[in-house]
Structures are given as structure tokens and as C-alpha cells.
Amino acid sequence: MTQRRADGWATRFGLIMAMAGNAVGLGNFLRFPGRAAPFGGAFMVPYFLALVLVGIPLMWMEWTIGRHGGGFDHGSAPGMFHRLWSNRISKYLGIFGVLLPAMVGIYYIYIESWSLGYAWQTATGVYWGQTSNEEMGQVFSSYLGMDGGFFSFSPQAYLFFLITFAVNVFVFSRGIERGIEIVARYCMPTLLVLGAILAVRVLTLPPVEGRTISDGLAQIWRIDDWSVLLHSDVWIAATGQIFFTLSVGLGMVHTYASYLKKKHDITLSGLASCGTNEFVEVILGSTIAIPAAVVFFGVTQTQAIAAEGTFALGFFALPVIFQQMPWGQFFGTLWFILLFLAGLTSSMAMFTPLLVFLEDELQLTRRQSVCYVGIAIFLLMHPIILFMHHGMVDEIDYWMAEFGLVLFVAIETVIFTWVFGIDKGWKEMHLGAELQVPRIFYYIMKYVTPVFTCGLVVWWFYDSFFDQVLMRGVDPASRPFLWVARLMILGVALFLVWGVWYAWKTHPKFFEPIEPEIEEEAT
Amino acid sequence: MTLTSWIYMGTVWVAIIALNVFCFSRIFSKKKKTDNNTDTEEW
């Protein structure tokens, strides 16, 4: 028995909190309002359609694929895909489920560390007195050490990065039961309480120059122009947000679910984790950043801030607002602690597929895999930190969290529904189920989800793939650094290709197939 | 916010909260039953 099989979820609540924590991240509080605001209330229409037609079915599929693969002692996507489709290529397609989360985690931890750094800066009032977006933008650049030099480096940001990195390594080195589950069980309820406190604070803000909180909420919920729905932008933005927020298509759900037994429910637990994520995103996430920004800055400026990107809202605009708010230092500190916890509950999941791949398929011990992964990601993070101003994060984010994610989703959907077969998949999904999924989802999973995700891949190729490959519009000075980012991705991918090839040549379980836990075990 | 917007927002919020109440009430009621049994596993 491998070490992974000795580990596992101690409680169902812990599993659901960890799955929800995996989904709840910086995107719920920063990316979601930033994506929704430009389209007004119309955004929520494709958002909920995508949730029901793609997001929830995908989430159930990934839980099922994970538990099914776990029954064969596979904790990562290559082995899981191999058991769904006994074709020599399937295990190589599963590499995406290890590569994507690991590469996203490499820059995500650095961004997460900014939240911790800003929590400290807010608590100590370091930037107090910088009361415009422009000034806070300078504070942000200064914090990251982006002052026009060759490197983007500041000792303070680096210190908080080291702390965040150490916390993450400590958590995932302790495994599922003693690490990830414990953190999720305490951090998720704390995050919900902090989010609720901040939401109530924003909802009770007094009017500023005639602008009320009602005007702020209107930015998310009022539909002025239904014709927005005729444009593809809003549909792509909403679907992308659903993938991102549920953390589907990244391989992490598979690994978490691989620790479940056939008798364990996945339909109700999966829906509960999805519901928790939607509570945090739609109710808390939509109530804090954009409404507060509208009250203090007005609609036009808020839209301009949202258009500047996710970080402008969270790290420029909100610190300005907190300075003008009674008890602003206190609420500002809570805001950045909230972001840090949201980031932590996601980032601690991102390296788990890689660790489990090393343990399950390459037969390393937990200590060895933590050691190798820790050293490798620490080294890979440094080019990103030092050359951040050349857009390395955006480059990796595009290939991994946007294009790669959509591609992986399409691959897994097709394999699960059309190759493995939706009939077998549906039966597998309902083993031990405490919730009978309505039959309509059978047809949604069989036809709508795969067609939709394959269509999205085609659209992605058409829309931005070639521009991105050819680096159109990129500053020539930054191009070598973007090539470094691509080589980093390629290097990790090649290692995984070798790992899969080696594992299938050497691991005894591929010569003496292990029977999955028998279905009679399911209750 | 118009009246329609408030209704729109309220409906969505109620739906999400109802989904959470439905899921967690079923999960915790199952756990309670399990705890009352001799087999006191946490699932």
C-alpha cells in the first residue's frame, strides 16, 4: 500500500471545506466583480447558465473521475485517464491535470503573498496618506520593487513571499488529513465570517456625494441593456469565470476525490462545495469591492478601475476607500487577511496532484516528493518574481489557467462522456449517492457540456491563440522573458511526459492490474 | 437599483442560500443519524 492510500479525509465536513476552499480563492473577491461590473446585471444570466450547463456537471464529472481513479490507486489525472480509456495516449493527456495546477501555483503563491504583505502594511498604516488610485499604484509598484530597474525585487515583498511559501510547503507536506483538511476546516469558516463582516460594513456605508450603496449594487445587478447578451464577450467571460471559480479543469478536484471510497457520496458533497463557493462569490464577492468602489469613486471611475484589471480593484482602489472609512485600518486589514486565506485554501491544493503523481506513479516517499517539489517550485518562482514587470505571470496564466484549462476540460469531458461512456459514468457517479441527480443532467452531460467545451476550444484558437503564440503587441524587450516562461512550462511538461513513460514501464501495478474497490462496498 | 433589480438580486441570493441550506441540512442530518448508530464513523 502506498503512503497516499494511508492518508485521506478524516471527516466529510473537512472534505467539503477543502473542496470549497480549493474553489474559493482570490478570484471570488477580485476577478468575479471585475468581470461582472463591465456588463452590468446581464453578466449574471450567462454566468448562471454556464454554472448549470457546464460548471456543476463538470464538477460532478471530476469528482467521479477522481474517485474512480482512486479505486485503482491513482491520485492524479494520468492514471485516472488511463483507467477511463485504455489507450496509450490517454495517460499522456492526463498530464494536463498535473501540469496546470503546478504551474498556476508557481505564480499564485507570489500573488497570495501580496495579500499577506498588504495586511501587514494596512495594520501598520504604512501607506496611510496615499489617498488616490495613482498614489496607491505607486505604492504597489514600490512594494513589488518595480522601479524601472532590471529586476523587480523588494526585500519586503520577498520576505512575505518566503513566509507564504513556507506556510504552503508546511501544509502540503503534512498531507491530506493532518495538513490540508485541518487548514480548510478552520480557514473556510473564518473566511466566511470575515467576508460577512466586510459585506455588512459595505452594505451599511453612508452615502458619499449622493452616491448610495444601492448605486453600487446596481453595477452588478441592474440590467440596462439586454443586447449585451448578443455579444460573445459576455458569454466567454462568464464561462471562463465559472471554470476559474469552481477550479474545474485543473486536476485538483480529481486528486482530492481520489481519496474517497465507492460508498462515499459525491453528488451531494460536490453540490455542497459548489454551493459554498457560489455563496462566497455571488453574495459576498459581489457585495464588497464594486459597491464600495462605486460609493466612493462613482460608476465611471469604478468601471475604469475594473478595466485596469483585477489587482487595481483590490490593491489600489480598496486601500484608498479604507482610508476614508471609519475603522478603515481594521476593515482593511480584515480584507487582506480574507484574501490571504482565500488564496491559501486554493494554493495548498495546487501542488497536491504533482506530489501525489510522484508518490503514486514514480513511487517516491512523501518526504522525497515534498523535498523535490519544494526545491523545484522555489527555483521556478524566482524568474517570475524577478522579471514580473515583463509579463511572465500573464504569459503563464494565459497558457495554463486560460487556454490549457479550457483544453483540459474539453479532453476530460469527451473522455468521460463519450469514450468511457455516460451510462457507466452516470452509474459510477451515483455509487453511494445521497442525492439522485435529476435525469436532465444525464443529457446535459452527454451532449451540452462536451459540445460547449469543444466549441470553446475552437473559439479560443480563433480568438487569441495565434496572437499569443506570435506575441503580437508585446514589447520586444519583454519577448525573451516570455520565452523563458514558455520554456519553464515546456520543461515541466517534458518531465511529466518522461514520468508517465517511466511509471508505465516500471510500476508493478501496470503489470498486475489492481482491481478497484468492489462496487458491493457501496451502500 | 430598480425594483426589478432588487427582486433579481434577492431571488438569486435566496436561491443560493436555499441550495446551501438544502445540502448542509441533508449532510448534517445524515451525520447525526450516523453518530446515533453504533458505527460512529464521521461520514
Task: Please tally the β strands of chain A and state the result.
Answer: 0
Count every helix of chain A, treating DSSP H or I runs of 4 or more residues as helices.
23
From the N-terminal CA to the C-terminal CA of chain A, the straight-line distance is 24 Å
CATH class of chain A: Mainly Alpha
Q: Quote the distance from N terminus to C terminus of chain B.
A: 44 Å
Average pLDDT number of chain B = 84
Radius of gyration of chain A: 22 Å
Shape by Cα distribution of chain A: globular
Report low-confidence residues of chain B grouped into runs of 5 or more.
Answer: none
For this structure, the quaternary state is: heterodimer
Largest interface: A-B, 29 and 21 residues
SS class of chain A? mainly alpha
Major sheet characteristics of chain A? none
Cα-based radius of gyration of chain B, to the nearest Å = 17 Å
Give the helix level of chain A as a range of percent: over 70%
* Number of helical elements of chain B: 1
Structure description:
- The complex is a heterodimer of chains A (about 525) and B (about 45).
- Chain A is an all-alpha fold and about 525 residues long.
- Chain A has helices spanning about 5, 10-25, 25-35, 45-70, 75-85, 90-95, 95-125, 135-145, 155-175, 175-205, 215-220, 230-245, 250-255, 265-295, 300-310, 310-325, 330-350, 350-360, 365-385, 390-420, 420-430, 440-470, 480-505.
- Chain A has a single domain, classed as Up-down Bundle (Amino acid/polyamine transporter I), CATH 1.20.1740.
- The termini of chain B are far apart.
- The interface of A and B includes residues 10, 13, 44, 218 and 272 of A.
Short description:
The complex is a heterodimer of chains A (about 525) and B (about 45). Chain A has about 525 residues and is an all-alpha fold.
Notable traits:
heterodimer; A: 523 residues; mainly alpha; 74% helix; disordered C terminus; B: 43 residues; 1 helix
Annotate the secondary structure layout:
The complex is a heterodimer of chains A (523) and B (43).
Chain A: H1 3-6, H2 12-23, H3 26-36, H4 44-71, H5 77-84, H6 90-93, H7 96-124, H8 133-144, H9 155-173, H10 175-203, H11 213-221, H12 232-246, H13 252-257, H14 267-297, H15 299-308, H16 310-324, H17 328-350, H18 352-360, H19 366-386, H20 392-419, H21 422-429, H22 440-469, H23 479-506
Chain B: H1 3-36
